[in-house]
Amino acid sequence: MTRRLTRILMLALTGFASILIVAVPVQPGATQWPMPDLLLMLCCYWVLRRPDCAPILVLFALGLIADMILMRPIGIGALTLVLITELLRAQIRTLRDTAFPLEWLTVAMLVGIGMLLQMALLWISLGTLPMPVEMAQYAGITILSYPAVALFCGGILGLRHRTSGKISYSNYLGEG
Question: What are the domain boundaries of the chain?
Answer without folding.
Answer: 2-17+35-161
